[in-house]
Write a structure and sequence with these properties.
- The complex is a heterodimer of chains A (100) and B (390).
- Chain A is mainly β and 100 residues long.
- Chain A has a domain of 66 residues: Immunoglobulin-like.
- Chain A contains 1 helix and 6 strands; from the N terminus they run αββββββ.
- Chain A is elongated, with a radius of gyration of 16 Å.
- Chain B has 5 domains: 79 residues, Alpha-Beta Plaits (2-Layer Sandwich), CATH 3.30.70.260; 67 residues, membrane protein fhac (Ubiquitin-like (UB roll)), CATH 3.10.20; 56 residues, no CATH class; 61 residues; 66 residues, no CATH class.
- Classes of the chains: A mainly beta (100), B alpha+beta (390).
- β5 of chain A pairs antiparallel with β2 of chain B.
């Protein structure tokens, strides 16, 4: 039986960690900027998966983000960034299952 | 940013049914801009640019989303609404041409740097040189006007005309007056300025040519500036001195007993002109005015934001008057003449002594005449430069 290897972080992440570079150097993770619970800016967004007035699920780099709250509004959209405003209550990160 | 969006036109839309997320993502990948997307009561609301709206609608049909316009906003819609109103376009056009035309006139003239010359004086010279309110700027050579004004204005050291838009600033500097320098160098003689008998002399410089009790005529040499010393050397001096002589003066004062005097009847007729950049439009019917009138002109320029505009009213007031004959009695005439006489004496013999005055009062040709004979002691010395011809 093959020994199940523990999923390692990718090489560049390990490298970055080794020489103590900030994590956002390679830009393969979404950057999320929040302004209290009123407004969120997500850089590295890919598409909208689900949109309701109290739940918004978007796909970003390497993960999915779910925002819960009320009066959610997509204030601005372009191919990379999205600005969401409203009264946010909860944020959830969902990592897609790797190595199927 | 908002103004920018307004200029390009914004459509607020409503969408329902179908797969809205898919619609959103495909719109994104096509590069259509969407913003302010909101969901209320199961209906999505959003905004987009008009440019994208038609393509967006096609995309929505593909995704099964029904798209409805909620509100159109922005300049393109406004222009579309008013496209048939030619008057507006013409109005804007006329306004712009009016603005452009008005830039070609002088609206204001400012004068700075004058101390003794009045602004009105300078402006009137400027008017004669061809610079006034309402003058067209086209073909106007300020340099030439400047030269002309400098020539015609006395006592100006320098003058420049600066144009700031449609305003001309006349900047000038006045010459400073030369101080009076007492001249005690130029050789001169003293001559008599009046006939008389010399009473007393006080000579500071020069050679006496007359003696006390001599009678001299006007123009006679009293003190000579050409002297000879004991070595027979000729010297030229600046003669100075006082020569007091008894002089005789005859003076007549007269006053007509009957004079005419203007008396205003109180009748005032006003005629107004509309002044447009120097063009005068009469605002009255030109009926000749009868009787004797005196004209008086008043300007009433239009003032906007504290600035006088070259547009305004010009009022010409015609005041009617009648000439009334007024006659003096002999006593009144004498009183007036005596006043004149004492004024004359003060002016004429400020530093002299009047020894006697004889008055002869007569009435002649409807006038009251006083003849006065004066005998007084006064300084008759007058300097006369010695002209040297070489």
């Amino acid at each position: 039986m093959k020994k199940k290897r523990k999923a390692k972080a990718p090489f560049h992440e390990r490298f970055a960690e080794a020489i103590e570079l900030p994590l956002d150097t390679f830009g393969n993770l979404p950057q999320i900027q929040m302004c209290g619970n009123r407004e969120v800016t997500v850089e590295g967004y890919k598409c909208v998966l689900e949109y309701d007035d109290n739940m918004l699920r978007i796909k970003a780099k390497q993960m999915e983000l779910s925002f819960w709250g009320s009066e959610l509004m997509l204030k601005y959209l372009n191919h990379e960034n999205v600005i969401i405003s409203g009264k946010l209550e909860r944020i959830e990160f969902t990592l897609p299952i790797q190595n199927k | 940013m908002k103004l920018f969006k307004y200029c390009r036109g914004v459509i607020r839309f409503r969408a329902y049914g179908g797969y809205f997320e898919r619609f959103l993502n495909e719109a994104q990948s096509e590069g259509f801009q969407l913003w302010n997307i909101q969901k209320r009561n199961g209906i999505y609301y959003g905004r987009t640019r008009i440019k994208n709206y038609l393509k967006l609608a096609r995309l929505a049909r593909k995704c099964g989303v029904r798209l409805r316009t909620e509100q159109r906003n922005g300049l393109p819609f406004l222009l579309h609404r008013y496209r048939k109103r030619i008057g507006l376009v013409i109005g804007v056009f006329f306004f712009l041409t009016f603005l452009l035309m008005m830039q070609n006139f002088i609206w204001e003239i400012e004068v700075t740097g004058n101390n003794t010359l009045t602004t009105e004086q300078i402006l009137s010279v400027a008017r004669e040189s061809g610079l006034q309110r309402g003058t067209s700027l086209i073909g106007l050579n300020l340099r030439v006007i400047q030269k002309d004004m400098e020539y015609h204005l006395p006592g100006v050291a320098w003058l420049t005309l600066n144009r700031k838009g449609s305003k001309v600033v006349i900047e000038l500097h006045e010459t400073e007056k030369k101080p009076d320098i007492a001249d005690d160098q130029t050789p001169c003689n003293l001559i008599a300025k009046k006939d008389g008998v010399i009473k007393y002399m006080e000579i500071y410089e020069g050679e006496k040519m007359v003696k006390v009790k001599d009678s001299v005529c006007k123009g006679d040499l009293l003190v000579s500036g050409v002297t000879e010393d004991k070595f027979q050397q000729t010297r030229l001096l600046h003669s100075e001195g006082k020569v007091i002589a008894e002089t005789y003066t005859e003076k007549t004062f007269s006053l007509p007993l009957e004079t005419e005097e203007k008396k205003y009847t109180g009748m005032v007729k006003t005629r107004k002109h509309l002044n447009l950049f120097g063009f005068k439009l009469p605002l009255f019917i030109a009926v000749p005015i009868e009787g004797t009138y005196e004209k008086e002109l008043t300007q009433e320029p239009l003032i906007l934001f504290g600035k006088e505009l070259p547009i305004g009213l010009e009022k010409m007031e015609y005041k009617e008057y009648q000439t009334i004959k007024k006659s003096y009695t002999n006593e009144e005439a004498e009183e007036i003449l005596m006043k004149q006489i004492s004024e004359f004496e003060k002016k004429e013999w400020e530093n002299a002594k009047i020894i006697s005055r004889k008055m002869v009062k007569t009435e002649n040709n409807g006038a009251y005449v006083i003849k006065v004979d004066y005998i007084c002691e006064e300084d008759i010395a007058q300097k006369e430069e010695i002209m040297i011809n070489e």
